[in-house]
Design goal:
- This protein is of the alpha+beta class.
- Helix content is about 30%, strand content about 25%.
- The strands form four sheets. Strands 7, 10, 11, 12, 15 and 16 form a six-stranded mixed sheet that branches. Strands 8-9-14-13 form a four-stranded antiparallel sheet. The protein has a three-stranded antiparallel sheet with strand order 1-3-4.
- A hairpin with a 3-residue loop joins strand 13 and strand 14.
- Helix 3 packs antiparallel against helix 4 and helix 9 crosses helix 10.
């Protein structure tokens, strides 16, 4: 009988050696069947192809050079339990599957003579990611009646991004097809929820996919003439979108610079689309990022770590070192009442790192 969703408990020997999820998964042959893949992971997507790695999450077993699945790694199991409890943005799996995944990972920890952290009752939190795109075709069009329309592509398909923090990324055609039909999506200005330019459920925001990528049209309100003028003059030429990854695939490739970790976004849930002034973080966060860099903390690597861990890919020793350094720095940097500081990005990061810190102790 084919097993899906949370994979039932099984018992193996264990090890507490260092854990590199990406390296272990690369050793699994691409033609491995579901029977083999179920030995490696703790969860499988009931809507995915069970004979592909992309359908699975929470890898936690060592794999030898021949591709044979071996003993369970306790560091991977501990990391997986932390993700189930909200660490790194939480586990992007149905709530009803969390207990089964926890049982699987906890059983390996028990076999190693260790106690798993208690499973929390909620898994409502998911990581919202943002991507920026230089929309060379952003323009102001007009309806037959002369009303302005903001147009532009916010994503392109089949093109690799720059380094996003330990990995690069590509968007597959069709990644937004489902969310376009089902989600309640806003068109904002600079991701400011107080400046709503359009909304798809109101018919004032229209999103579609074409051969290039995903584009949008916004019918802005009359009070937005100033924003429209900045696009018309070419002062604002970039777009951004906020999303959660519903299905992605992680692989690796090699070039002259070494091994690259690659992520392909197969399906995304869109939350908002926004013309943006700056292609990265808000200006109020620039000083914070500089301070992190001065402390030797790579903010892009930290963000990439959160994304990889959110997808159940586990943590390497270098990831753990980065987390510990970040926790120490941010604990001293943020006031005791972070809600009173305007540096929201750091306050949020401190909260997330505190969850990780609990998992490390």
């Amino acid at each position: 009988m084919e097993v899906r969703k949370a994979i039932p408990v099984h018992h193996t020997d264990t090890t507490d050696t260092s854990w590199d999820a990406a390296a272990m998964q690369r050793r699994i042959p691409n033609d491995a069947t579901a029977a083999t893949l179920r030995l490696m992971y703790a969860w499988v997507d009931p809507t995915g192809n069970p004979d592909t790695k992309a359908a699975y999450k929470f890898p936690h077993h060592m794999v030898d050079s021949s591709g044979k699945i071996g003993v369970a790694n306790v560091k991977a199991c501990q990391s997986g339990c932390g993700v189930l409890n909200g660490g790194m943005g939480g586990a992007n799996i149905p709530d009803e599957d969390r207990k089964g995944v926890w049982n699987h990972l906890a059983a390996h920890l028990k076999d190693a003579g260790m106690e798993a952290p208690e499973l929390k009752t909620s898994n409502s939190k998911r990581t919202i990611e943002r991507r920026y795109f230089p929309a060379t075709d952003m323009e102001i069009r007009q309806t037959d009646g002369g009303a302005p329309i903001i147009f532009g592509h916010f994503a392109v398909f089949n093109q690799w991004s720059e380094d996003l923090g330990g990995f690069r990324e590509m968007i597959s055609p069709g990644a937004f097809a489902k969310t376009i039909q089902e989600a309640d999506i806003r068109g904002l200005w600079n991701h400011n929820a107080d400046i709503v330019l359009g909304r798809n459920t109101a018919g004032t925001l229209r999103i579609s996919e074409d051969n290039l990528g995903a584009s949008y049209e916004i019918d802005p309100p009359s009070w937005a003439e100033g924003y429209i003028e900045t696009i018309r003059r070419g002062d604002v030429t970039q777009n951004s979108f906020g999303f959660c990854a519903i299905q992605d695939e992680w692989n690796s490739s090699s070039d002259d610079n070494g091994t690259l970790t690659e992520r392909t976004l197969i399906e995304c849930e869109l939350f908002d689309i926004s013309p943006v002034t700056y292609p990265a973080y808000p200006q109020t966060d620039v000083n914070v990022r500089a301070s992190l860099a001065d402390a030797g903390i790579d903010i892009n690597a930290l963000n990439g770590l959160f994304i990889r861990a959110d997808r159940g890919l586990g943590l390497t020793d270098s990831d753990m070192d980065l987390l510990k350094t970040s926790i120490e720095f941010l604990t001293s940097y943020i006031p005791s009442e972070p809600e009173r500081t305007p540096l929201a990005i750091v306050a949020n990061m401190r909260r997330r790192l505190e969850l990780v810190e609990k998992g490390l102790n």
